[in-house]
Amino acid sequence: MAVSLTTERSQHAVGETIGVPLTGKIRILIADEQSLLRDGISNLLSAQPDLEVAGAPDTPSLAVDMIRQTRPDIVLLGWSAGSPAGNKVFAAIHEGKLPSKVIVLTQTDAREDFVEAVRQGCCGIVPRHTSTEMLLKSIRKVHAGEFWLDRATTADVIRRLARKTGGSGTSSRLGVRDQSSALSQREREIVVLVAQGFKNKEMAERMFISEQTVKNHLHNIFDKLGVSDRLELALYAIHHNLHESR
User: Fold this and answer.
1) Is the whole model's pTM more than 0.85, yes or no?
2) Which of 35, 182, 189, 200 has the most CB atoms within 10 Å of its CB?
3) Domain limits, the chain
4) Are the beta carbons of 23 and 69 closer than 8 angstroms?
5) Distance CA 152, CA 228 (A)
6) pLDDT above 90 covers what percent of the chain?
7) Residue 153, exposed/middle/buried by CB under 10 A (0-12, 13-18, 19+)?
8) Beta carbons of 139 and 103 less than 8 angstroms apart
9) pLDDT of res. 133
10) Which of 108, 104, 137 is nearest to 119 (CA)?
């Protein structure tokens, strides 16, 4: 079972005036050095009526150039988030303030990279061995503004965060006890927005409160849930289904 978090952020429409056609389809760029993977996924996506392959670069430099030129809706990233290649792609998207959302295709033996992928700002993590159905579903969900992370991966990220941050305390905070009942309705709203990637200023504007009030709420949330930063809070929200409307 996978976890997805809905966000109401507006999609960035890009017109033909800058060379990107408005086809009404989800435009996807497949970035990986393995031609077999690129060709296989490309053929799969091309067969879907609502999907369109914007490109299939095999090097990080080419991927960056194509992302800037085609501004795809989704980037399927075959390089690990913590690698020089992955860093280059994420940096280009962030620095260019591009609307492209990244789904990282992970190796089963490279789970240390899951934490880094979340930190880098990916919108989804999908194992390379996933089913066709799950890959297609992840693309459509992420394009709709949701975060895609299967529960097995979520649990694995939490365990690895625990090891990275000092042992069982983090694991207990994130994965064992659900303290969300102590949150007010306002605090629950903020938890959902944090999990969706909103910054303090964006949350303040959305909720019609000051940025300092958002910070105060976050301080209280961290204290009540026992998490230490926004990443832990986002993972806690996913793990305990706090994204679901009450």
Assistant:
1) no
2) 200
3) 2-156, 177-239
4) no
5) 22
6) 45
7) buried
8) yes
9) 93
10) 104
188 near 179, Cβ under 8 Å? no
Q: How far apart are CA 225 and CA 45, in angstroms?
A: 41
38: Cα separation from own chain's centroid: 21
Cα 10 to Cα 14: distance, rounded to the nearest angstrom: 12
pLDDT at 237: 79
The CATH architecture annotation of domain 177-239 reads Orthogonal Bundle (1.10)
- In 3D, which of 89, 3, 95, 96 has the Cα closest to residue 104? 89
Q: Please, which pLDDT band fits residue 159 given cuts at 50, 70 and 90? A: low
Amino acid in position 167: G
Domain spanning 2-156: which CATH class is it, in words?
A: alpha beta
Chain segment 41-73, per-residue pLDDT in tens: 999 999 999 999 999 999 999 999 999 999 999
Structure tokens at 163: 């090891």
pLDDT band at 199 (very low <50, low <70, confident <90, very high): confident
Please list the alpha-helical segments (H only) found in the chain: 35-46, 60-70, 84-95, 112-120, 132-143, 151-164, 168-171, 185-195, 200-207, 211-225, 230-239
Same CATH topology for 2-156 and 177-239: the answer is no
Q: Specify the residue for token string 């392959």.
A: 53
Q: Give the whole-angstrom CA distance, residue 48 versus residue 220.
A: 46
Instruction: Between 160 and 224, name the one with better pLDDT.
Output: 224
